[in-house]
Specification:
palmitate, alpha+beta, protein-macromolecule adaptor activity, five-stranded antiparallel beta sheet, 28% helix, Beta-lactamase Inhibitory Protein, Chain:B, domain 1, lipoprotein, 192 residues
Length: 192
C-alpha cells in the first residue's frame, strides 16, 4: 500500500514537471511569433554628395574653390594631401545601405581628376530634428539661475584677484594688507 501511495506521488510530480515544460516550450515558441523588433533609425555618416555638387566642379579649380562647393573633405591623406575623399554612408533603418564616394585628386593647388562611385543621382531625404539647433535669440537657457537686478554685486574684498575686466590696484598686493600683522607670514616661513 505504501508503494501505491509513493507511485501516485511520483506520477503527480512527473505530471507537474511535464506540464511546466510543455507550457514553457509553448510560451517561448509563441513569444517568437509576436516579435515587434527594436526601434531603429536612419544613420547618415560623412559628407552628403550629390550630382548637383559634382557638376559644379571643374578641373583647374583651386582647393579653396572646391572646399567652398563641397565642404571639408572627410578623408585627407596625412602625408600626401593631393587626394581628398568625400564619403557618404546611409544605413537606412529597415532598408538598404547606400554608399557614395567622391575622390578628388589635385596637382599642386589645382583640381586634376574627379572620380565618383555610387549613385549620385538619387535624392536622399535626411530627417531633420525640429528641436535640434541653436536656441532662438533672446531665449533663456534651460536651468539658468534667475538673476535679481535689484541686488548689487558684492564689491571685491582686499586681497582678491580682479575678475572680468577689472583692473588691479598696484597699491594693494593680492596677498593681503601691506602693513601690521606679520604673524601669519612668520608662521608659514618657520615651517610649522
Amino acid at each position: 500500500m505504501i508503494d501505491r501511495i509513493h507511485d501516485s506521488e511520483e506520477r503527480a510530480q512527473m505530471q507537474k514537471l511535464i506540464t511546466i515544460i510543455t507550457l514553457s516550450a509553448a510560451l517561448s515558441l509563441t513569444s517568437g511569433c509576436s516579435y515587434f523588433g527594436v526601434y531603429k533609425r536612419d544613420l547618415p555618416q560623412g559628407n552628403l554628395v550629390d550630382q548637383e555638387m559634382i557638376s559644379q566642379l571643374q578641373p583647374g579649380m583651386t582647393r579653396n574653390q572646391v572646399k567652398s562647393i563641397m565642404g571639408t573633405p572627410l578623408l585627407e591623406a596625412p602625408f600626401d594631401a593631393s587626394q581628398w575623399d568625400y564619403v557618404f554612408y546611409l544605413d537606412e533603418a529597415y532598408g538598404d545601405v547606400e554608399k557614395r564616394r567622391l575622390t578628388l585628386t589635385f596637382q599642386g593647388d589645382r583640381l586634376a581628376n574627379i572620380d565618383a562611385q555610387g549613385d549620385m543621382d538619387s535624392d536622399i531625404e535626411l530627417p531633420t530634428d525640429q528641436e535640434a539647433g541653436p536656441a532662438p535669440e533672446g531665449a533663456d537657457p534651460q536651468g539658468a539661475m534667475p538673476s535679481n537686478p535689484d541686488e548689487p554685486e558684492p564689491a571685491p574684498g582686499p586681497g582678491t584677484a580682479p575678475s572680468g575686466g577689472e583692473t588691479s590696484s598696484e597699491d594693494e598686493p593680492i596677498g593681503g594688507s601691506s602693513g601690521g600683522d606679520d604673524s601669519v607670514e612668520s608662521e608659514s616661513s618657520s615651517g610649522f
